[in-house]
Amino acid sequence: MNNFVFCNPTKIVFGKGQVQQLNSLIPENAKVLITYGGGSIFKNGVMNAVKEELAKSDRKVFEFGGIEPNPKFETLMKAVEIVRKEGIDFLLAVGGGSVMDGTKFIAITAPAKEFYGKEEELLYFGAKGTPVKNVLPLGTVATLPATGSEMNNGGVVTKGTDKMPVFNAGTFPVFSILDPEYTYSLPATQVANGVVDTFVHTVEQYVTYPVDGRFQDRTSEGILQTLIEIGSKTIEDPKDYDSRANLVWCSTMALNGLIGSGVPQDWSVHMIGHEMTALYGIDHAKTLAVVLPAMWRVRKDQKREKLLQYGERIFGITSGSEDERIEAAIVKTEEFFNSLGIKTRLSDYGLKSADIKDILANLEKHKMLALSERGDVDLKVSEQVLKTAL
Amino acid sequence: MNNFVFCNPTKIVFGKGQVQQLNSLIPENAKVLITYGGGSIFKNGVMNAVKEELAKSDRKVFEFGGIEPNPKFETLMKAVEIVRKEGIDFLLAVGGGSVMDGTKFIAITAPAKEFYGKEEELLYFGAKGTPVKNVLPLGTVATLPATGSEMNNGGVVTKGTDKMPVFNAGTFPVFSILDPEYTYSLPATQVANGVVDTFVHTVEQYVTYPVDGRFQDRTSEGILQTLIEIGSKTIEDPKDYDSRANLVWCSTMALNGLIGSGVPQDWSVHMIGHEMTALYGIDHAKTLAVVLPAMWRVRKDQKREKLLQYGERIFGITSGSEDERIEAAIVKTEEFFNSLGIKTRLSDYGLKSADIKDILANLEKHKMLALSERGDVDLKVSEQVLKTAL
Asked: Boundaries of each Fe-containing alcohol dehydrogenase-like C-terminal domain copy (chains A, B) (predicted)?
């Protein structure tokens, strides 16, 4: 097992009706800015419930809506202005991954005096994190099981065709209210995306190379098995509470640092996928479903032991040569994504061989030249992966 | 899945040589009291390494040794006096579960002005927690994989024949350094105890009744499978780093609140076991190894579904009637404990039928009259369990 540091201070308040805890979770005299997206929270009653709770105290409450999927720097800067002007001291993100991610960027940027006028620089510090101290505290009422943003300190923000990861030590939500019923009204395609997103988050931390991290491996396998069991069910029967609750909890646990502690991590699938979303607007999860099988086919030697373990423990694949078992595991994975209505080829999304050079150019621009758990995914390997995915 | 709140702010610093982080983890100008037990940390070099790190800053450092296994109220009160007299503002527990547990009690008690002169009342608030605010911050350098105290807010403190659980919202360690190499010098019997302790912590949160908590179940099963794989190995070959690292991480994860979130919890085995330790000084883990199989035999109907799941997923037991499969799973569990050198009958520890009434009297005194995930373990059931364990 590798050395690691793990710390995740977010308080999770999980279950039916937990919005009733909201008032006690936010400081009594805070000036609160509620951030949200396209307005679905008005239709499904979530915003009403949130406001009703906040009204139990004398806080001043502001609102900022319109945070889009793949939240844009320019949109978020408008919220930053409000925070600065009104002296907001608590952010409450009500929505899915984009709202939570965007709110983290607001929390970092608004108080960062040293970046006044050059806020876009904060987009480019990558995984090492933005050098801003005393970011604004934030809480979330999460409405989409997918990104894990409700229990980690990262977000992804888009500027033009740059889709950049943004981190800060202080952007773990103080609390996150996860009520599975708040996700019932999601369109089926978003739920399917959430299942695939959670699945790929997990394998990015699991299908690498073995370091005898048994707790980590088995916990990852537990998430994958659960997703396979409940994936179709929770898409087809959105009001089945237990299936949805399992999806919500697995999506949180897949990306809160736990399963990746002490083991190698890949993330090359995500980095290539981000460029496809930035360039063509393909849903994040769908880009992952395209890139993952191709990545595994191209890098099956580097991932051999873990792919065999994955095939055996997740799908019970034990017969055939190693290469046959690996291919069978990849096919099973594709079949699982397909069974959720998610296609797994570039061509399914209208991309052709000629588009690959644009994706590679973006990877080069963003210095994504040594990806994966071994740092061996250079542009040449990325090209091979994309060709394999056609 | 049941509603739950989960929050665990402890920073885990895991792996070889991580004591080198110590200096940066403790506030620069803190007055530190190092707490420890019987002095094994002087023999195995841990105390030297700790002091060397602390000497890199100008802090005033005090020491308090002699915290015994099953730490006593009277001993801990001596440390409380030092804290009050010297104005200590950070506690550093260097040792195993007893040292960490005892240090939590010191952290609660020293600043509790409202309990001056009547500190022993703090022993009797049970799982609802001690009503003390602003407890002292504490960190740990853990040397025994067993109790999970390094990443939770609970401890167990003994006064006479009262062995009482003590909790406080503020006694999560700020950090815990877990270096598996620091556990190499433990006697084999303590390592075996640690394996069994971790195993029983896990099943107290897993073998109850099903609520469709799939992540929780699978994570628990992962811990159990890991313990079965590495248990004997890490006892026989203490310097096998990976086996020991897996034991250390599993023991932490088994009792940090994660696997028990959103699912029923039992703990009746622990409560009965505590009385046996308090009355007869039998090692904590050994009391658990005695009570658990008997508890499962007596309450197999109440735990039927989870016992069958446990038998199938952990030991691959799939044939025979339900009762036969349950009995086979219990026998496999006993065999596992025995394989580690831990006996599983009351008579193995010199206890006889006539002793049972004393254990029951203690349970009654401590109001342990409605134990288990269903509250159905009254004194009559406890008696039946103890008779079954003879």
From this structure: 192-360
The alpha-helical segments, DSSP class H, found in chain B are 22-25, 40-43, 46-54, 73-86, 97-109, 188-204, 214-236, 241-253, 268-280, 284-298, 304-315, 322-339, 356-365, 379-388
Chain A CA closest to residue B177: A5
pLDDT of residue B31: 97
The predicted structure's pLDDT at residue A39: 82
Q: What is the pLDDT of residue A55?
A: 92
pLDDT of A32: 98
Contacts of B9 in chain A (CB under 8 A): 7-9
Spans in chain B with pLDDT lower than 70: none
Lowest-confidence segment of A125-129, A195-199, A224-228, A382-386 by average pLDDT: A125-129
Alpha-carbon distance B390 to A146, whole Å?
51
Instruction: Tell me which H or E stretch contains A232.
Output: helix A214-236
pLDDT computed for residue A382 by the predictor:
98
Judge: domain B11-182, CATH 3.40.50.1970.
Answer: yes
Per-residue pLDDT band for A52 (boundaries 50, 70, 90) equals very high
Under DSSP, is residue A342 helix (H, G, I), strand (E, B) or coil?
coil
Q: What is the ipTM of this complex?
A: 0.96
Query: How do residues A290-316 score in pLDDT, each as one tens digit?
Result: 999 999 999 999 999 999 999 999 999
Asked if B187 and A217 touch (Cβ cutoff 8 Å), the reply is no
- Name the residue in chain B with its Cα closest to that of A210: B242
Cβ distance B7 to A6 less than 8 Å, yes or no, reads: no
- Rounded to whole angstroms, the Cα distance separating A324 from A304 reads 11
How many Cα neighbours within 13 Å face the side chain of A312? 13
HSE, side-chain direction, 13 A CA sphere, residue B32: 27
DSSP class of residue A137 equals P
Q: How far lies A123's CA from each of A92, A135, A166, A350, in Å?
A: 21, 15, 6, 30
Pick the CATH number of B188-388 from 1.20.1090.10, 2.60.40.1180, 3.40.630.40, 3.40.1640.10: 1.20.1090.10
Indicate the pLDDT class of residue A146, thresholds 50, 70 and 90. confident
Helix (H, G, I), strand (E, B) or coil at B39: coil
pLDDT digit string (tens) for B49-84? 999 999 999 999 999 999 999 999 999 999 999 999
Q: Do A212 and B246 touch (CB under 8 A)?
A: yes
List CB contacts (< 8 A) between A1 and chain B.
14-15, 242, 245-246, 249
- Which residue in the set B218, B225, B242 is minimally distant from A225, CB to CB? B218
Say if A98 is an interface residue toward chain B (CB within 8 Å). no
Q: List the domain boundaries for chain B.
A: 11-182, 188-388
Supply A382's token pair.
């990325």
CATH topology match: A11-182 vs A188-388 = no
- For residues B244 and B195, what is the distance between their CA atoms, to the nearest angstrom? 10
Mean pLDDT of A372-377: 98
B350-377 per-residue burial string, b: 16 or more CB within 10 A, e: under 16: ebeeebbeebbebbeebebeebbbeeeb
Under 8 Å between Cβ of A174 and A138: yes
What kind and span of H or E run contains B154?
strand B154-159
Neighbours of A118 (CB within 10 A): 9
Task: Name the strand (E) or helix (H) holding A228.
Answer: helix A214-236
Q: How far is B121 from chain A (nearest CA, A)?
A: 29
Which residues neighbour A297 within 8 Å (Cβ) at sequence distance 6 or greater? A327, A330, A388
- Compute how many other C-beta atoms are within 10 angstroms of the C-beta atom of residue A375: 10
Q: What is the DSSP letter of A135?
A: P
Q: What is the pLDDT of residues A172-205, one digit of tens each?
A: 999 999 999 999 999 999 999 999 999 999 999 9
